[in-house]
């Protein structure tokens, strides 16, 4: 007998996380809670996937567990409401963090000036004490409260380092301010380090502000995807059309869709006729004709006609819902570099404290007459010089400069994760429509029969007829003719899937496919027929035109390549990348476009999940894959890819899912984005290297390792200067990015 699985699997927003080690703390606390089988925190989108037994562990209980260490679960029955609440919480936190950063910076300026320039200012130490106390207790208070909460549970993070270093510097400086004679009686200067404590708080707040700005829109993609589904739906009940909430729709309900409405669920057309904009599913700009028996999909937009359809897939089973689920699962991975930094910070605190204690004890035993003085100076120097400021600034300053430079070149970079992965990309996938091509069908060729006369008159008449058609190919012809003369059709009829027939003045026109014209008794012009075959071999759609039974012209329509596509592909290949093209278009068109831009690896007639599966196939071969797209149909593949890149003139969803966005249709920006990301991540690694080296060398020197050799004992003031210098070196190295060429 089959048993039901009692375990619930939920993805819930988490509040209060400020670094990757916070995610580790949340995971650890939840995993050790009775009833929880597994917990996986996604720091980038601030959520946790929990597998738990509701009979043992309730969501309220899990929330209480996290509240003990300063975090919490955002519990809402409606997933969209939960995301909305999470977004509102993030906005409030960002606004508060911005205020703290600004005020901490403003108050740090006079502290630094007094400490470094006006050192003999009367009561200068007391002024610095008061100002730095405000910075630490008001604007830096969260560092201390979080550090205490972590310590209660035997854990440590970047907040612990900040609280420890600034707290020690402040306490030591306060002691020296009130009891300077303690040092003066021993022949030493009672230095203070208020400026170090205040500036550390400011810089770390600034780093967190930059990080929060990068993460602030992580929930927007899901919110917008969910917003594509209407809140209500019109269905036929008892022979009448009534409006009901979308959650009440049932399978096989007959849904009524009018002009301009968004389709609520997946289904099959039962009556009526229209064209539906399915670009979010197919990526193709030409609306699809819908008649009886055709499939329609949730989130797509009906155009001018109206129809009824039978609901087949509802709720979480629609194609749109599956896209949402895929994006939710794949979006927002942790930045590998910052993850390493936070892991090191977790053990860095006890190591530094241990070294400080060891240094104190060693000096008390071996220091001779000045043992206490040297022991205090060594211990304090270790704690001051071990400030994590350089570590905290290494990533955000490089990102800030890189993002600024990218903006100048129409490149938006989302976060360090995308930069780290782009550095290793060896394969790049390009969507065709809207990425390699313009995304707008245009008439590329117009050929007249040799016997054709009155061409201008015919052009005016053709425009009059095509103006009455809803088909995108007809609009392409209208835009091509662009005549100011207004003629009126006395008769007009659409032949579904074939073309149109109409009368203008004394002439009868047939416009459509060659088989349609032949079925109407039109004998093809041999020269035009040969030209049509040549154009079709070039993957162009050919429309034939006849007047009074005579074949007079053909028009070839195609979605043209962007002017820079060929050069962009060549530059990508020059960078050593394998370039692939995926498209929902037919194989003939795909082959022609691929050949024209110089791509040998391509696939045609692919659906959204096919694109995602293709990305997976490359990843399974060990490839680091970048996906470039512009439509919602690309969002699954974008979410699955190691690096996702959206064209800025594409859909909002593609841009929200993507880690890099190109705010232009110029594909030449794409290789620039690749080079910029490589330069930026290289700078981040340089910053981290120097930050670590600084601590590896500085801490032993501060402890007094050189004293037995040359009598050198590091003064805490020099330790503070070294700390500041480490931060300056990191920022200066980041600023070098501005001078690098893309």
Characterization of this structure:
By secondary structure, this protein is α+β, with helices and mostly antiparallel strands. Among the domains are: 8-75, Alpha-Beta Plaits (2-Layer Sandwich); 230-317, Distorted Sandwich (Calcium-transporting ATPase, cytoplasmic transduction domain A), CATH 2.70.150.10; 335-410 and 675-742, no CATH class; 438-560, Calcium-transporting ATPase, cytoplasmic domain N. Helices cover 51% and strands 20% of the residues. The strands form five sheets. Strands 13-25-24-23-14-21-22 form a seven-stranded mixed sheet, sandwiched between helices. Strands 7, 8, 9, 10, 11 and 12 form a six-stranded antiparallel sheet that branches. The protein starts with 7 loop residues before the first strand and ends in a 7-residue tail after the last helix. Mean pLDDT is 80; it is low at 217-221 and 329-335.
Could you estimate the helical fraction of the residues in percent?
40-55%
- Kindly report how far apart the N and C termini lie: 65 Å
Number of helices: 28
Strand order of the largest sheet: 13-25-24-23-14-21-22
Q: Can you summarize the main beta sheet?
A: 7 strands, mixed
Our estimate of the beta-strand percent is 15-25%
Strand tally:
25
Please state the average pLDDT score. 80
Q: What structural class do you assign from the helix and strand content?
A: alpha+beta
Radius of gyration: 34 Å
Sequence stretches where pLDDT stays below 50 over 5 or more residues: 217-221, 329-335
Give the CA-based shape: elongated
